[in-house]
Specification:
The complex is a heterodimer.
Chain A: E1 2-13, E2 16-27, E3 31-35, H1 42-50, E4 57-62, E5 65-66, E6 76-79, H2 91-101, H3 106-115, H4 131-143, E7 149-152, H5 161-176, E8 180-185, E9 196-201, E10 204-209, H6 211-217, H7 223-240, H8 244-254
Parallel strand pairs in A: 3-8, 3-9, 6-7, 7-8
Antiparallel strand pairs in A: 1-2, 1-4, 4-5, 9-10
Helix pairs in contact in A: 2-3, 2-4, 3-4, 6-7
Chain B: H1 18-33, H2 36-57, H3 69-100, H4 102-106, H5 113-141, H6 151-173, H7 179-189, H8 191-196, H9 208-216, H10 218-231, H11 237-260
Helix pairs in contact in B: 1-5, 2-3, 2-5, 3-5, 3-6, 3-7, 3-10, 5-6, 5-11, 6-7, 6-10, 6-11, 10-11
Classes of the chains: A alpha/beta, B mainly alpha.
């Protein structure tokens, strides 16, 4: 079953077309990585999934309902890239406030803090924490709702390698328990930890694949190199198909739907 | 690893909820509690300013049979302080919610927009009640402010004024894109109401068109209600009508603030 389906999603920010027409599906109960360089449209796409992004056209369905529906708000968790917790509250007060919004108890808030390894820091003001701790506090405030779909925007930035590994284990533990996770990252070495991969570049889907498939397609065991090979192969195909680039620009401007393309096998 | 994927108490709707309003009010008060200097300023500053006014008019002779200038102005200021302070505090607090990303996050939770705004209203209304009790106590004992009616009615009017300040602050913050703008909404929204409320120039002596503007500004009614309490031993019909008008204006501003708070942004 697919937890998320996106069809012909077009998003403009200002005059710029950030997503020119994305289509893909995210299977339930897996960790799907959303990878791409900074500025490729990852955050915009995640905001569309949780229903806070103005969308020009297209359809985003989460758990069978339009993204952002009132009935989804207790079932979808969102962790923004910059930690969005209250600096002037303690870690525990933050967790308990978000717990109460999801109808959860103080005990569940403490459990969520234990999950991200912040029990010892529970009484500290968030403003006094390190960047990494702050990020984990923000994560705990989403975990506490026990969401069925968890959207995480670059959750491991700035974390030390040990913590990063622990968090990824946690993500897979959640997925094993049935949660669907969509995790963005701009570092390719995290791609290998995902069950599925969506590679985004300039708002276009370069690959909708698995780490193993990407390695095969890009003919390299190194995912970064495989990614580069796939991108280069696309560009070769693009150049040989005269005017393709021009046509796609025209499509982007007119807002016409444009489905995801299979990974090119050059 | 906890797997709180489904809980019987989970909230899935986004209707107005007294529980979520109370949770939000509690969170705002907790934030305030961590900021000791703000609490001290909130409680002490109005009394000190009132003391300055007391000293200013202490030796100015009053014509026999008329209330002293300090009794008239001081009483009015008891309604104006909470209005101005809560307007400023709220517009900054809301702007912080916006810039820290917590607002966007809250909008993805089951919290209704009006829950959030009412939560602010309740929290700062309570803070204002405490402030009013302190200020009224100091004014009537230390500065010998004469109030013919009940001092509890003065406290009530001060609280309603504070809630009006909160509501207008929430509305104004929707139009502020930066802290600089938010601060400048204070003179735009507060000063004209102060100039035209009848304190500086009696309303009967104003030019017709100025009086017409004064008629539609809510602070006018707050000041009139305080003057009623100042001159009449029992609560008058005019006073209750005025309190109703101020409360109605506050509710209208809250509703407008909820309507201008967009869930989806570009």
């Amino acid at each position: 079953m697919d937890a998320v389906t996106v069809t012909d999603l077009v998003v403009d920010r200002g005059r710029r077309r950030v997503l020119p027409g994305l289509s893909f599906a995210v299977p339930a109960g897996q960790v799907t990585g959303l990878l791409g360089p900074s500025g490729s449209g990852k955050t915009t796409l995640m905001r569309a999934l949780v229903g806070v992004q103005q969308v020009r056209s297209g359809r985003v369905t989460v758990l069978g309902e339009p993204a952002g529906s009132p009935s989804l708000r207790g079932r979808v968790g969102y962790v923004t890239q910059a930690p969005s917790v209250y600096d002037d509250l303690t870690v525990r007060e933050n967790a308990r406030y978000f717990a109460s919004l999801y109808g959860m108890s103080a005990r569940e808030a403490d459990a969520a803090l234990a999950d991200v390894g912040l029990t010892a820091a529970a009484g500290q003001l968030v403003g006094d924490l390190s960047g990494g701790q702050r990020g984990r506090a923000s994560l705990a405030c989403a975990l506490v709702g026990g969401p069925e779909v968890l959207v995480l925007d670059e959750p491991t930035v700035g974390l030390d390698p040990v913590l990063r590994v622990e968090l990824w284990e946690r993500f897979h533990g959640l997925a094993a328990a049935g949660t669907t996770l969509i995790v963005s990252s701009h570092v390719m070495d995290e791609a290998g930890r995902c069950d599925r991969l969506l590679l985004l570049r300039d708002g276009e889907l370069i690959a909708d694949s698995t780490p193993a498939q990407l390695r095969a397609d890009g003919r390299s065991q190194d995912l970064e190199e495989a990614f580069l090979n796939v991108v280069r192969a696309r560009e070769v195909v693009g150049a040989s198909e005269q005017g393709r680039e021009h046509r796609s620009e025209e499509r982007a401007r007119s807002g016409a739907p444009r489905g995801s393309e299979p990974v090119s096998r050059a | 690893m906890t797997a709180t994927t489904s809980a019987p108490t989970r909230t899935t709707t986004s209707h107005l909820s007294p529980r979520l309003t109370a949770a939000t009010a509690g969170r705002v008060l907790r934030q305030l509690r961590h900021d000791h200097r703000t609490i001290a300023m909130m409680l002490v500053l109005p009394s000190l300013l009132l003391g300055l006014l007391h000293l200013l008019w202490q030796d100015v002779p009053t014509p026999p049979g008329q209330p002293g200038v300090f009794d008239r102005v001081g009483l009015t200021m008891l309604g104006i302080f909470p209005f101005v302070v809560m307007f400023l505090v709220t517009s900054i607090a809301m702007l912080r919610e916006r810039t820290s990303g917590t607002l966007e996050r809250l909008l993805t939770t089951p919290l209704a927009r009006l829950d959030l705004l009412l939560g602010y209203g309740v929290a700062f209304g309570l803070a204002a009640a405490l402030q009013a009790v302190v200020t009224v106590a100091v004014a009537t004992t230390v500065y010998d402010l004469e109030v013919v009616g009940s001092v509890w009615l003065v406290v009530l009017i001060a609280v309603v004024d504070a809630i009006l300040g909160v509501a207008l602050g929430l509305l104004a913050s929707a139009f502020a894109r930066s802290e600089f703008q938010a601060v400048q909404f204070m003179p735009v929204i507060v000063l004209p109401q102060f100039f035209l409320c009848g304190l500086l120039v009696p309303r009967e002596q104003m030019a017709g068109w100025l009086q017409a503007i004064s008629d539609v500004l809510p602070l006018t009614y707050a000041v009139e209600a305080l003057q009623e309490v100042g001159s009449s031993a029992t609560a008058t019909g005019t006073m209750w009508r005025d309190v109703g008008i101020v409360a109605g204006a506050a509710l209208l501003a809250l509703a407008l603030a909820a309507a201008t708070l967009r869930r989806r942004t570009s």
